[in-house]
Amino acid sequence: MSMIFAKPSMRTRVSFETGFSLLGGHAIYLGPDDIQMGKREETRDAARVLCRYNDIIMARVFGHQDILDLAKFATVPVINGLTDYNHPCQIMADALTIIEHVGRLEGTKVVYVGDGNNIVHSWLLMASVIPFHFVCACPKGFEPDKETVEKARKAGISKIEITNDPKEVVQGADVVYSDVWASMGQKEEAAYRKQAFQGFQVDEFLMKLAGPKAYFMHCLPAERGVEVTEGVIEAPYSIVFPQAENRMHAQNAIMLHALGL
Ligand code: CP
Ligand code: NVA
């Protein structure tokens, strides 16, 4: 498997590399300086070359079009390891984690608090196929992509709510979910976003409002004291480490499926 990384990673890289090795495969890490997709090499050329050496391509890229182009031009399965638009492997691992801790994903209430980003888009796509109650509480102007929200609503499978007040919607949550306020590629906006996201930190008060059955989840890496408090991420109801572990198990299943095994 070739693993193309245009952005940094710990979990995605190590879980794919270790997981594929456990399955009997060999993964090759290609960092931001190796291919320089779109600069040193066109994406469509990289796709057509790598698939002649490898049985799978996994890629973490900036623009979502890059993953679509890799999939279009490669003759082997291409796995999305995160784009600016979505992060499907993360949400597959998250679903597995919720099944393990709550017992099922169907019928649960997942309240995401923060930026309407790639994680939210993958939750919305998950809500288009599995019935649960998905709520995204984000500041005004940081809502998820309208078309993706529409698609999830039109699917008519799940209850979808987009709101600007986490306190109003958090009660009864099975999971309160958080992610960084400035994603990879937005780090120069971090200071401005910190201002705009005041009131969207997941703290002990919000978890109390959520109620006693609520777990805390975060895709990691986390900025303690910014989108989540130290107390919440270290609390017994925080399941961020089993969640991180499940990246590997979920992806192993995805790879076996992609290879038809
Ligand atoms: N959650 C996640 O994708 O982590 P990395 O950025 O470390 O891969
Ligand atoms: N939204 C974050 C997720 C990191 C796993 C980012 O894109 O940086």
Automatic annotation (TrEMBL):
Keywords: Transferase. It comes from the Eukaryota. SUPFAM superfamilies: Aspartate/ornithine carbamoyltransferase (SSF53671). One of its GO terms (biological process) is L-arginine biosynthetic process via ornithine. InterPro entries: Asp/Orn_carbamoyltranf_P-bd, Asp/Orn_carbamoylTrfase, Asp/Orn_carbamoylTrfase_sf, Asp_carbamoyltransf_Asp/Orn-bd, Orn/put_carbamltrans. Residues 106-257 form the Aspartate/ornithine carbamoyltransferase Asp/Orn-binding domain. One of its GO terms (molecular function) is amino acid binding. It holds the Pfam family OTCace_N. Its EC number is 2.1.3.3. Residues 2-100 form the Aspartate/ornithine carbamoyltransferase carbamoyl-P binding domain. It is an enzyme of class 2 (transferase). The keyword Transferase applies. Gene3D superfamilies: Aspartate/ornithine carbamoyltransferase (3.40.50.1370). NCBIfam families: orni_carb_tr, PRK00779.1. Belongs to the aspartate/ornithine carbamoyltransferase superfamily. OTCase family. This is ornithine carbamoyltransferase. It comes from Citrus sinensis (Sweet orange).
